[in-house]
Specification:
By secondary structure, the protein is of the alpha+beta class. It has 14 helices and 35 strands.
Length: 737
């Protein structure tokens, strides 16, 4: 997820969830009353504060590495057959769903859990709104709209049947959220599902879309239908993402969290008014059928873990196609409102370019469709969201290629398409490890932009007219929003236990910056091979941060560098601020005092020493009448450069430059908090700089990395220009709201 405003001002989740019940109480509520009959063991829930595991998953987790020789791309655990009809006037959907689910565990299952995500938007008592009321006071975020009467959204279960048995349900709170939250339902089954067996449920439901608040909803005749159907949680086995026992991984819909689900197949029929444009996850299975002013579309897609769609009146389409090695022919469609026609072609091109880049660098794109939706004006919060084969972008009425307009369109499109790999194909747990999707995707997006030499430009026309076009590298831009000075939460923290909205927002930039710095230590090519191997091992398998770390170590062979980044930033809250504190220069003159040499003692007084120095200098000047300004007499100089380390240890390079134009590079690769580097020679030091190639972007203050003997205003001029570019970029983002 992410609009450029999201990336410029993105802010995160901070507090421990406000809970009216404890986990113990929640678990007690799920345990059946004692009886004389044998009751199957209740499978526990994932911990309410679970986050990134430290231990890698077992090699056979999720069925082992997918080789491509299996009958299906993924190990399909679920199948959904849904018939749904949109009431366009009321923005509601009436649906019937047949859910088939396979019990992968070795024990019977007598209770399942359903996500009812739309209930996050039904009232202010939900976990989503309860958290939002606190967290938006500590930073800005998307999703801050205040629903008015008639603008709330919900999902009502009408019936749930297992065979001929009508099942009951109750709302539970796996994360100790408020008792009024209804985003997770527990359903006790009439008949347990045996180990390896399959459960079939028939569910009737009604979904009321909210006015667009975040990710889903309506505005005018536009309906983005997401998180809209009852969806089963994930049953994890020991050795999968840190699980030590069979457990249900099912979390409430938090303010900043997204999703996690099993791979499966979707067979969905959508009935909408015939004058509405429709797009969805997957491909149309057959020709639409029309009756009584309504059209039914049939979409089918296997090996995905979610389904979303759009129905909008008066929207247009722009089509393209793409073909790459190892991929099927891909039909690409952009669905857009007339007011944003200028964005359609740029979104299409960025999508096609992304297909090529991600397929070349990670692995072939395996699906036959990609659909990009540009939301209309006043529905921007539906933009910047991702689903398998389907994402929402952003729109502008005009695109100025010489300003941030083009960069914004490209970045958001690339980012949301990229989720198709990191959220879609790798399918990490966005509840517990948002860095694996938002952060790693952000890093790969910026690599793509860097390879295109696409820098962040100022949009200011008056600066361009003045002949000034400040710009910066994409990773330099990322670090400005990475919260490097006070990182409150580890990158591997879950999405809801965050100090503030701003802290959650650093999942994007700080992860991208950390991976950039790791890339500098391992090498770009090594990092590229490691990420390709990560994708090969874990696509269709739900990896954890520990699995990413293990892959990086295996490919690079540099456990030290990888572990330092993960220990300090993924699992810790380290900060870096190495700096040059002083440059001291003294002449190496004869030293006064009593000296013993060859058994004889002699004495040199300070006055005699001064006379000797003066004579030698005069003689030297006479013999060197054409001496340059950097030649400074018969005596050498001793230059001492002092550096100080605050925060985490990181291998540094100190570049020392001398008056004669030469320089030496000195490694600082130990854990000492300060060092003095001393050099004696004919030419004095004029400047010293840590990280001269600017590879360590996690350093919170790059301005103190260097020091000159004499004042040099060039650094302040450069940073002033960069700051101007940043401010102009933020202004451009504000205009898009």
């Amino acid at each position: 997820m992410g609009t450029r405003m999201q990336h410029a001002l993105r802010h995160g989740l901070a507090l421990v969830c406000l809970g009216l019940s404890s986990m113990a109480a929640a678990q007690d509520a799920l345990v059946p009353a004692p009886s004389t009959t044998l009751v199957p063991t209740v499978i526990p829930l994932a911990k309410p504060h679970a986050d990134a595991p430290h231990e890698a998953s077992s090699p056979d987790a999720w069925g082992g590495v997918r080789t491509g020789k299996e009958a299906t791309l993924s190990d399909r655990v679920v199948a959904y057959r849904i018939d749904a009809e949109l009431d366009a006037a009321h923005h509601s959907i009436t649906g019937s769903e047949q859910l088939s689910w396979r019990n992968r565990s070795s024990q019977p299952v007598n209770r399942i859990y359903l996500h009812l995500y739309l209930n996050a938007f039904q009232n202010e008592g939900s976990t989503f709104f309860t958290e939002r009321s606190v967290l938006t006071a500590h930073g800005h975020s998307r999703g801050e709209a205040a629903p008015k009467k008639g603008e709330w959204g919900w999902i009502d279960l009408k019936t749930v049947q297992q065979g001929n048995a009508a099942l009951k349900w109750r709302f539970v709170h796996p994360d100790d959220g408020p008792a009024t939250d209804q985003t997770v339902a527990a359903i006790d089954l009439a008949e347990p599902v045996p180990a390896g067996g399959t459960l079939t449920l028939d569910i009737d439901f009604v979904s009321q879309l909210p006015r667009v608040i975040e990710r889903t909803g309506w505005w005018g005749n536009f309906n983005l239908v997401a998180q809209w159907f009852p969806k089963i949680g994930v049953l994890e086995l020991p050795g999968e993402r840190g699980a030590t026992q069979v457990q249900w991984n099912v979390h409430e819909f938090h303010f900043n969290s997204e999703f996690y689900a099993d791979f499966g197949s979707y067979d969905v029929r959508l009935t909408v008014p015939s004058d509405y444009t429709v797009g969805a996850v997957g491909a149309q299975h057959d020709e639409p059928s029309q009756q009584n002013g309504k059209t039914t579309y049939h979409f089918v897609q296997g090996d995905v873990h979610d389904f979303a769609w759009v129905a909008a009146k008066g929207f247009r389409t722009l089509d393209g196609s793409w073909q790459g090695p190892g991929s099927p022919n891909v039909a690409v469609r952009v669905i857009y409102p007339p007011e944003y026609v200028a964005s359609a072609q740029p979104v299409l091109k960025a999508t096609l370019d992304s297909l090529s880049y991600f397929s070349d660098t990670l692995g072939p794109y395996p699906y036959r469709t990609v659909t990009a939706v540009v939301p209309p004006f006043n529905a921007e919060e539906a933009g910047g969201m991702e689903y398998p084969t389907f994402f929402t972008a952003e729109g502008d009425k005009t695109i100025d290629k010489d300003t941030m307009d083009q960069w914004n369109i490209d970045f958001v499109t690339i980012h949301e398409f990229g989720h198709g790999y990191f959220y879609g194909l790798l399918a990490s747990n966005e509840f517990e490890e948002p860095m694996l999707d938002e952060g790693i995707n952000e890093y790969w997006d910026e690599r793509m932009l860097r390879e295109r030499n696409q820098r962040v430009l100022t949009p200011s026309s008056w600066l361009r007219r003045a002949g000034i076009t400040p710009s910066m590298d994409v990773f330099t831009f990322e670090r400005l929003d990475a919260g490097l000075q006070h990182p409150f939460d580890p990158l591997g923290q879950n999405s809801w236990d965050r100090y503030s909205s701003s802290s959650y927002g650093t999942v994007y930039s700080r992860t991208a910056t950390a991976m950039h710095d790791l890339e500098q230590r391992l090498g770009k090519d090594v990092m590229a091979r490691a990420m390709r191997e990560y994708y090969r091992r874990w696509h269709f398998r739900h990896p954890s941060a520990a699995d990413l770390r293990a892959t990086l170590i295996d490919v690079s062979g540099n456990a030290r560098a990888v572990n330092e980044i993960f220990d300090q930033y993924v699992y810790g809250t380290a900060r870096i601020d190495d700096r040059v504190t002083s440059i001291d220069i003294v002449k190496v003159l004869p030293e006064a005092g009593s000296w013993l040499k060859d058994g004889q003692r002699s004495e040199l007084s300070a006055d005699d020493r001064d006379d000797e120095v003066e004579k030698k200098r005069d003689a030297w000047k006479k013999s060197h009448p054409n001496a340059g300004k950097h030649e400074d007499g018969p005596y050498q100089v001793r230059s001492t450069v002092t550096v100080v380390r605050e925060g985490a240890v990181v291998p540094q390079l100190l570049r020392v430059t001398y008056a004669d134009g030469t320089h030496v590079d000195v490694p600082w690769d130990d854990d000492r908090r300060w060092r003095r580097f001393v050099h004696t020679g004919d030419s004095p030091v004029v400047s010293a700089e840590l990280d001269p190639e600017h590879t360590i972007l996690l350093d919170e203050n790059k301005l103190n990395d260097s020091r000159t003997v004499k004042a040099d205003p060039s650094a302040s001029r450069r940073w002033t220009a960069d700051l101007a570019a940043l401010l102009q970029s933020l202004y451009a983002c504000l205009v898009t709201l």
